[in-house]
Amino acid sequence: MARARVPLLVVALLVTASLGHAMAQRAAAACATPPSTAEALDRAGVAFVGTVTGVADGGYTATFDVEEIWKGPNLADPSTVFGGSASVEDSRSWEAGQRYLVFPSVDSDGNLVDNGCSATTAYRPAFEALRPAGAHAPQGPPTSGLPGDPPFAAIFLVIIAFGTLGAYSVWRTGRMRE
């Protein structure tokens, strides 16, 4: 009985290893060809041109001097972009002093993140032809959210204000009846 389980266990391990290898190859193939810069700009929620002024975490985290925002919310200047780590296969590393056209995503904590599968690339003069008419330098403090997102903070404040006003009215009406 024990002898029958050993080959079954070996077969199960081989199948699992094969599936894992196939999935890893599929994931690598999925980002083997990033979109063209023009396609990436059309699809991007955030895009900016900036120069790396400092790197950390072995080159996987970059501080950018944001020169121009091509798409998305106003960004802080400087801005930090997290590119992963040495242990993550599709991580992006940065080179200090290099100018980039960056297509980061925004994580749930509001951090800018990028990886080797995005269209982020060293800036080339040919990109001037793709520069949107609304491109602009960073202006004041960063804005929250992407364009088109509802202004949750403002909505929340309005709800609080009306709730407070309503509670005060009920309290005052109750005092008048006394």
Which labels suit this protein?
178 residues; alpha+beta; 7-stranded mixed sheet; 3 helices; elongated
As a percent range, the share of helical residues equals 25-40%
* Number of separate helices: 3
The main β sheet shows up as: 7 strands, mixed
Tell me the total number of β-strands: 7
Q: Estimate the strand proportion.
A: 15-25%
**CATH topology (level 3) name of the domain at 37-130:** OB fold (Dihydrolipoamide Acetyltransferase, E2P)
User: Gyration radius, to the nearest Å?
Assistant: 25 Å
Q: Give the termini distance in whole angstroms.
A: 87 Å
Average residue-wise pLDDT: 78
Per-chain topology:
Blueprint: H1 2-30, H2 37-43, E1 47-56, E2 61-71, E3 79-82, E4 99-102, E5 105-106, E6 112-113, E7 121-122, H3 152-177
Parallel strand pairs: 3-6
Antiparallel strand pairs: 1-2, 1-4, 2-3, 4-7, 5-6
Could you describe the 3D structure shown?
The protein is an alpha+beta fold and 178 residues long. Among the domains are: 1-30; 37-130, OB fold (Dihydrolipoamide Acetyltransferase, E2P), CATH 2.40.50. The chain has 3 helices and 7 strands; from the N terminus they run ααβββββββα. The chain has helices at residues 2-30, 37-43, 152-177; strands spanning 47-56, 61-71, 79-82, 99-102, 105-106, 112-113, 121-122. Strands 5-6-3-2-1-4-7 form a 7-stranded mixed sheet, with no helix packed on it. A hairpin with a 4-residue loop joins strand 1 and strand 2. The longest helix is centred in the first third of the chain and has 29 residues, at 2-30.
